[in-house]
Amino acid sequence: MLRLPAHKRARSRGFSMLEVVVALAILTVGVMAAAALTAKMLATGHQSKYMSLASTLATEKLEDLNRYSPNDPQVCVPLANTSVGSLGQDIGPVSTTCPPPGYTSNVAYYDNVSISYNVSSSPCPNPTAGCFSETVSGLSGGNPVYTTTYHSPDGQIVPTTSSTAPTNVTFHRRWIIEANNPATVVTGTRRVTVLVTLMDTTVQPPVNFQMSLVRP
After folding, report:
1. 3-state SS class at 128
2. Contact criterion met (CB below 8 Å) for 164 and 146
3. Beta bridge partners of 174
4. Residue 33's pLDDT is what?
5. Which residues are bridge partners to 214 per DSSP?
């Protein structure tokens, strides 16, 4: 009877239990590593999207504040102050009086931006396509009032007012306006700094974006 060589007889018996266990362990480690990499890529992409939005919103707010004249309460710093507003807490609405000629107005140094999709109960003019809404706080008869402006992708704009603050907030913006400091800015100018914070704490690391400009 013809006998196979020893190494061929060993191969004909198939894999041993030890070989199967080792192969499964290697496969498991590979699958887990691939899953972890995929999850990391998705999380990074998610954060990058919100970081890009935060950057856009910071730029938009700086451009908005830059359009006011130097003597407007929205951007002036009272004579007795070195700065108005804050990046660490919500300030306002507070009465702000500019240096002479001394215009006065109630100013809030923060606002909220929300992104909504397919919310039929929203005042958004085109809820199917989604809306960006910006809410600013003010005072009416000494009572707080919140004005929300809805912007839909088709160009429609709808303002609404309410006595209650919005609850569905995507981004929170704060800003500070610093009076001239020759050590840090050009003489005769003021520095405006905006901080945008994503309110969704499930996005990690947290999304915060800060930007400044120097203006008269």
Report:
1. coil
2. yes
3. 110, 195
4. 75
5. 191
End-to-end, the C-alpha distance of the chain in Å comes to 103
Q: Is the dihedral of CA 152, 154, 156, 157 positive or negative?
A: positive
Residues 130, 137: Cα–Cα separation, whole Å: 23
Beta bridge partners of 124: none
**Which pLDDT belongs to residue 3?**
56
* Beta pairing partners, 156: none
Per-residue CA distances from 79 to 69, 97, 166, 174, 179 (Å): 17, 9, 34, 22, 9
Classify residue 28 by its DSSP letter: H
Q: What is the pLDDT of residues 102-138, one digit of tens each?
A: 899 999 999 999 988 766 667 888 877 788 999 999 9
**pTM, rounded to two decimals:** 0.80
- 96 by Cβ neighbours in 10 Å (0-12 / 13-18 / 19+) ranks as buried
Q: Rounded to 10 degrees, what is the CA torsion of 75, 78, 82, 88?
A: -60
DSSP string, 36-84: HHHHHHHHHHHHHHHHHHHHHHHHHHHHHHHTS-TTSTTT---TT-SEE
